[in-house]
Design goal:
Elements lengths: L18 E6 L1 E2 L2 E4 L1 H12 L5 E4 L5 H14 L7 E6 L4 E6 L3 H11 L2
Parallel strand pairs: 1-4
Antiparallel strand pairs: 1-5, 2-3, 5-6
Length: 113
């Protein structure tokens, strides 16, 4: 049986690890990303936390509007980086704006077995 097949009557396995996406802004005409973005990505890497990176360019108006709405909902300034953590096991979400090492440390603690 391959890794992708499941035995009859067996529940499909779901990857329940949190999915982390970091929205970053390029500095100048492209990478490297902004200082807060670099610090966030570096801290996640140092903590061994897998993550995806999405570069937000000035012409991504719809995405920028969505981030502004999220910041308004949270009552915080809309600043990059924006971090979105999705927990598939519970469908909970956590988000934050800016470089927040304490939140990354907390996430690392949550991910430890």
């Amino acid at each position: 049986m391959s890794d992708f097949e499941q035995a009859p009557g067996e529940e499909p396995q779901v990857d329940e690890r949190p999915r982390i996406t970091v929205y970053v802004k390029p500095s100048g005409k492209g990478p490297p990303v902004c200082q807060g973005c670099k610090a966030t990505l570096r801290k996640l890497d140092e903590a061994g936390i897998p993550h995806n990176k999405i570069i937000v360019h000035d012409d991504h108006l719809e995405l920028i509007d969505e981030l502004k709405r999220e910041a308004a909902t949270l009552g915080v300034a809309c600043e990059i980086p924006f971090v979105h953590v999705y927990y598939p096991a519970t469908t909970d979400e956590t988000t934050w704006f800016g470089y927040q090492p304490d939140k990354i440390n907390k996430l690392k603690e949550e991910l430890q077995p």
